[in-house]
Amino acid sequence: MKTHRLDRRAFLRGAGVLMALPWMESVNVWGDSPSANKPASQAPVRLAVLFSGNGFHSKEWWAKGEGKGMELGRVLQPLAPFREKMLFVRGLYHEEARKGNIHSSQTGNMLSGAPIAAGGEIRSGTSFDQLLAQSYGRSTKVPSLVLGCERANPSVHKNYSMLYSSHISWSSPTTPTPLEIYPALAFDRLFKSEVAAGDKSVLDAVLADAQDLRRDISGADKRKLDEYLDSVRDVEKRIENAGKRGELQGWRPTLEKPNIQRPADGIPQNIEEHMRLMCDILVLGFQTDATRICTLKLNNDHSALRFPNLPSVEQAGNGIDYMIHHLLSHSNGEDWLKVNQFFMEQVAYIATKLDGIREGERTLLDNTMLMHCSSMMAGAAHNNDELPVVVLGGGGGRIKGGRVLEYKEQPERQLCRLFMSLMDKMDAHPNGFGDAKRMLEEV
After folding, report:
1. 282 and 419 together in one domain
2. What is the pLDDT of residue 214?
């Protein structure tokens, strides 16, 4: 079979556009040199961290059993198809996050476990995704992709900056990583080069190079290339259509201009479409190896999002937009459960897409660690003595799924132990991180 000779990294190029290729059996995409005896190199391990604020329905976040027989609480039902590729982790927490007992102090160290400064000072800790970005992420175009679906809140709540509750990724102890909430700009970061490509389609810019590549790859890789280009085109079109409708890509103020009355609380416009676009961009980033590390903050802690797309059980005939997410979290009603499941549906959506992409003998989900977390168990109680955490994916064959890991009664319950384990799967081998000194042996 003829080998397409490319540089260490394989790209499609066009005017102002640089698109990394997905894994292919006949192309040297990931860096090793293919030979007559082996295909192109194995795909790398990826890390995705999703976060939703304000916790979950207190009685419906649970799992028991293992493998196909694992039973799940109603919050986790959207993840049922992936129970064999899932770790349900119970009982871990951040000791430092318990000292303020308010949203910001509980979220600001979500991925670091570091002490949180109050009184006008902003100081947390470098999050583990950014430590990985500084090493593991250097081999990709985008060391880490930091996405969000709700704008950062710069105000102060009970002596703590709300920037803590608006960011989970921190580049340094005093610097939250810039959060991209616009799908179009996130898309451009993955695919457009420093030279501005204007409004021209990314795919139109690289079609000639793609056609040249097709002549030198296997039939299976031609199908993979076509599927990938179709995925990129679909995301491009959806972003373009959202822009034509005049939407602010997932959020806009209730009032377009001030008037004499106080505006109502902000209502997200088509939040479901916004979240799905961000999920698709995450998948494309991993599929092309444009990035191997991504955080997606579905909403803030102390969130003001509403969900008119979800039919209310408690307010018949209406959507769940009669109350902001933060206030809704103080109930344990059916509407709160539906919102919880909506967030889990985003995780399931990403897992489904990743699991449908082959990378040699594994799927992209098998090569990914997809973690979802929140900074408290239940919004009504603000209880964070054990945090809700679930991990999907195989970590490149290094994680065995279909298990419930219980740490509630163990002496060393630092969530940072899990972070150390995930870092280890990506060939970073920390001696300690945050308040943890050793990894979770079971992961």
Report:
1. yes
2. 87
d(CA 23, CA 225): 9
Residues 6 or more apart whose CB falls under 8 angstroms from that of 59 comprise 73, 332
For residues 59 and 31, membership in a common domain is answered with no
In this model, does residue 3 exceed pLDDT 70? no
> Do residues 116 and 99 lie in contact, with contact meaning Cβ atoms separated by under 8 Å?
yes
Q: Is the pLDDT score of 374 beyond 80?
A: yes
- Give the burial string for 97-111 (b: 16+ CB within 10 Å, else e): beebebbbbbbbbbb
Nearest to 45 by CA among 262, 366, 277, 383: 366
**CA 273 vs CA 175, 191, 249, 278, 327: distances in Å:** 29, 21, 8, 9, 23
In order, the DSSP letters of 187-211 are HHHHHB-SS--TTS-HHHHHHHHHH
- Residues 245 and 270 occupy one common structural domain: no
- Nearest Cα neighbor of 302 from 381, 193, 385, 379 is 379
Question: Residue 119 belongs to what domain range?
Answer: 45-181+265-425
C-alpha 217/C-alpha 215 separation (Å) is 6
Domain match, 234 and 375 both: no
User: Does the residue 78 lie in any domain?
Assistant: yes
> Could you tell me what percentage of the chain is helix, strand and coil, using 3-state DSSP and rounding each to the nearest 5?
30, 20, 50
Residues 277 and 348 reside in one and the same domain: yes
Q: What is the pLDDT of residues 10-64, one digit of tens each?
A: 678 777 777 777 777 777 665 544 444 444 457 889 999 999 999 999 899 999 9
Non-local (6+) Cβ contacts of 28 within 8 A are 3, 4, 6, 8, 10, 34, 40, 41
Kindly report the three-state secondary structure assignment for every residue of 221-260.
HHHHHHHHHHHHHHHHHHHHHHHHCCCCCCCECCCCCCCC
How far apart (Å, rounded) are the C-alpha atoms in residues 332 and 388?
16
Query: What Cα–Cα distance (Å) separates residue 342 from each residue in 61, 276, 355?
Result: 14, 11, 20
Beta strand extents in 119-162 (DSSP E only): 145-148, 156-157, 160-161
Residue 393 lies in a domain: yes
* 50-102 residue pLDDT tens: 999 999 998 999 999 999 999 999 999 999 999 999 999 999 999 999 987 77
How many whole angstroms separate alpha carbon 282 and alpha carbon 288? 10
Structure-token pair, residue 330: 């103080």
**pLDDT at residue 219 tops 90:** no
Residue 436, domain member (yes or no) = no
Q: Of 43, 71, 74, nearest to 365 (Cα)?
A: 43
pTM of the full structure: 0.87
User: Does 405 share its domain with 309?
Assistant: yes
